[in-house]
Amino acid sequence: MTEKKRTVLITGGTDGLGRAATLLLARRGYLVFAAGRSPQKREELDRVAHKEKIPIRTLEMDVCDNLSVEIAIELVLEKGGGIDVLINNAGVGYMAVVEELRMEDLRKQFETNLFGVLRVTQAVLPQMRTRRSGRILMMSSTAGLVSPPTYGAYSSSKHALEGLTNALRLEMYPFGVEVILIEPGYIVTNFQQTAKELAQPYVERAKQSPYAKIYAGAWAGANRGRGSSKTTPEDCARVMLHAIEATHPKARYAVTPLAKWTSLAKRILPDTLLDSFLRRKFGVTREGQGG
Fold it and tell me: Which whole-number Å values give the CA distances from 274 to 134, 228, 270, in the listed order?
C-alpha cells in the first residue's frame, strides 16, 4: 500500500511567496492545493504542474467571501482526504498615512489580512482538531513587529494577526495542532506591485499633502530595502518547509536578515530607540529641522 501524500492548502498559492511554497512542497511529494483568484495565474501553475508531473491542484478561492471559502474547503477535504497543513498566505497592503487613510481601505485591509485568515482557519480547524494533528502557518511580516510610516493599515492588520495566532497556538495545544508564525522582511514579489496600485489614489494627492515628505521618505526607504534584499521567495519557502517538517517547530520564524534583526531589536530595545532608527531609515524629520 502506498503512503498517503500529506495534503497542504495554501491561500494566495498561485503567486509570490505562496507560489514558491506550492512548487517546493509539491516537488517534495506533498499534495498541494493552491488557492487563488486569478484564472491566469492558476492556469500558469497548472501548466508547470503538468510539465513537471508534480501533485498540484489549483482552485478558486476568495478569502473575503464565505461561500467561496466553504466550497473550496469542502473540495479540498473531499479530494485530499483531509488537510494536514494550512498556509494562510493571502494578503494585501494599503499604504497611507493614518490621517489620510480612507476607512473603506482600512476595512478592506483587515477583511483580507485578518478576517480572511480567520474565515479559512475556522473552516479547517474542526477536522484538524478531531484528528488531533495538523499545522497552520500564518504569514505575518516584519511589519507585524514594527510600524513604519504609511504602514498603519498593513502593520495593524499584521499586529492583529500575531495576536490572533498567539491565542490560537495555546488553544490548539491540547489537540496536537501546531500554529506557527512566519515573519518575512523585504522579499521582491508581485505583492509590491499590487500595493503600489492600491496606493495610487494616495500617490496622486501626495504632493499637495502636508505629509508629502513622509510619503517620499517611506517609499524611498522601502525601495532601498527591497533593492538591497538578497532573500528570494524560494528562501522563504524553505523556511516554511522546515516549519512544516520540524519535530518541535518554533512559535515564529523570521525569514530575512532584516526580520531577524527586527525581532531581536523589538525584544531588547526601547521604543524610543526603535523610533529613532525608523526615523533615520525613512527620512522622518521635524518641521523646520534638518534631523
Answer: 36, 20, 7
Catalytic residue among 30, 94, 154, 211: 154
Give the DSSP H or E segment for 88.
strand 85-88
Angle between helices 117-131 and 66-80 (to 10 degrees): 30
Q: Among positive and negative, which fits the CA dihedral 274, 280, 282, 288?
A: positive
Cα–Cα nearest to 147, from 29, 278, 255, 1: 278
Strands 252-254 and 85-88: what pairing? unpaired
Residue 52 grid cell = 513537471
The verdict on whether 154 is a catalytic residue reads yes
pTM > 0.85: yes or no: yes
Measured between alpha carbons, how far is 128 from 137 in angstroms, rounded to an integer? Answer: 13
Q: Name the residue with cell 532573500.
A: 231
pLDDT for 235 equals 95
Q: Could you give the 3-state DSSP secondary structure of residue 181?
A: strand
Residue pair 22/14 in contact (Cβ under 8 Å)? The answer is yes
Q: What is the mean pLDDT of residues 109-121?
A: 98
Residue 135 in contact with residue 177, Cβ under 8 Å? Answer: yes
Strand partners, 31: 7
177-183 and 252-254 strand pairing: parallel
Is the model's pLDDT at 40 over the cut of 70?
yes
Q: What share of the chain is helix, strand, coil (3-state, %, to 5)?
A: 60, 15, 30
Question: Around Cβ 98, how many Cβ atoms within 10 Å?
Answer: 14
Q: d(Cα 9, Cα 88) in Å, to the nearest integer?
A: 8
Residue 131 CA from chain centroid, whole number: 26
